[in-house]
């Protein structure tokens, strides 16, 4: 599905909803998008981004480095204890501006079961400890099972997340669980440099928003991201909530930008990714 993100679009008419900036939409008295939709779309996007990048850090940390995130000698200390099968990525107790222009502090602890981190069948678990990105705090775990790294031209991993994101400024928290398959489409020959990587994601997730609404998400067109881009650039997610018609988030046609579209009853509501 190709969405022209430059078109004048139908936008939510609510001054309190900062995600949208104008008002010109068709009314559907039976099922109008409201603040709950906006909260879900924003929090889903934050969870996708922040939990998604943990694997990239663990992969690069396996080499004992984190050059794609560090600025010079600062921003992170990486320790790989091969005997204990443990990788520690420590951003310190104060915010540090990383290469991707995000502020981080806190620690990521990675343990794995294989003789080597990259072994097929090895299971790696990532635990954030007092870990913040742009003042969003991540808690919980991310478990990564290496399905076929050594035998497939496009390696893939089963990735399960059971986590919570605490928002800045007493904004509450939201829960995120997901069961996905990630396929490494490009960049395999440079495993310690994520900037040339290209990924595809399929699977499902459940978001429990900071307003206690539960939304079930299913990727119906694979999510795609070039890691040289800050955002998911292609793919469509179907979103279900009891009592409402299905919603969709469309990330566009592969162009690297911060534009996405929320679709309800055939009406497009453009918004900006964070």
The level of helicity is under 10%
> How many DSSP-defined strands?
14
Question: Beta-strand level of the residues, as a percent range?
Answer: 35-45%
The biggest beta sheet is recorded as: 14 strands, antiparallel
Distance between the termini: 22 Å
- In total, the number of domains comes to 1
Helix/strand-derived category reads mainly beta
Word description of this protein:
The protein has 274 residues and is mainly beta. It has one domain (35-272). Helix content is 10%, strand content 43%. Strands 1, 2, 3, 4, 5, 6, 7, 8, 9, 10, 11, 12, 13 and 14 form a 14-stranded antiparallel sheet that branches. A hairpin with a 6-residue loop joins strand 11 (234-240) and strand 12 (247-253). The two termini are 22 Å apart.
Break the fold down into its secondary structure elements and pairings.
Elements: H1 35-61, E1 77-81, E2 86-90, E3 96-97, E4 103-112, E5 123-133, E6 136-146, E7 156-166, E8 173-186, E9 198-208, E10 214-226, E11 234-240, E12 247-253, E13 259-264, E14 267-272
Antiparallel strand pairs: 1-2, 2-4, 3-4, 4-5, 5-6, 6-7, 7-8, 8-9, 9-10, 10-11, 11-12, 12-13, 13-14
Comma- or semicolon-separated keywords:
single chain; mainly beta; 274 residues
Write a compact overview of the structure shown.
The chain has 1 helix and 14 strands, in the order H-E-E-E-E-E-E-E-E-E-E-E-E-E-E. The protein is mostly beta strands. The protein has one domain (35-272).
């Amino acid at each position: 599905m190709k969405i022209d993100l430059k078109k004048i679009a139908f936008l939510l008419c609510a001054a309190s909803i900062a995600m949208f900036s104008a008002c010109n939409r068709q009314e559907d008295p039976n099922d109008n998008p409201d603040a709950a939709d906006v909260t879900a779309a924003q929090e889903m996007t934050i969870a996708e981004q922040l939990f998604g990048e943990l694997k990239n850090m663990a992969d690069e940390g396996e080499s004992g480095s984190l050059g794609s995130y560090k600025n010079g000698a600062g921003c992170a200390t990486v320790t790989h204890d091969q005997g204990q099968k443990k990788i520690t990525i420590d951003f310190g107790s104060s915010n540090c501006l990383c290469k991707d222009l995000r502020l981080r502090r806190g620690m990521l602890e990675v343990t794995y079961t294989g003789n080597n981190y990259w072994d097929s069948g090895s299971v790696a678990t990532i635990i954030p400890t007092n870990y913040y990105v742009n003042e969003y705090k991540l808690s919980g775990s991310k478990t990564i099972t290496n399905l076929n790294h050594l035998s497939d031209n496009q390696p893939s991993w089963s990735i399960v997340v059971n986590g919570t994101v605490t928002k800045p400024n007493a904004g509450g928290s939201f829960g995120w669980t997901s069961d996905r398959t990630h396929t490494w489409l490009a960049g395999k020959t440079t495993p310690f440099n994520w900037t040339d990587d290209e990924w595809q994601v399929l699977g499902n997730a459940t978001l429990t928003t900071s307003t206690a609404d539960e939304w079930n998400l299913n990727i119906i067109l694979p999510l795609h991201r070039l890691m040289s881009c800050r955002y998911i650039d292609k793919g469509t997610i179907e979103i279900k909530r009891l009592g409402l018609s299905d919603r969709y988030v469309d990330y566009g046609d592969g162009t690297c930008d911060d534009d996405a579209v929320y679709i309800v009853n055939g009406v497009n509501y453009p918004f900006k990714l964070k």
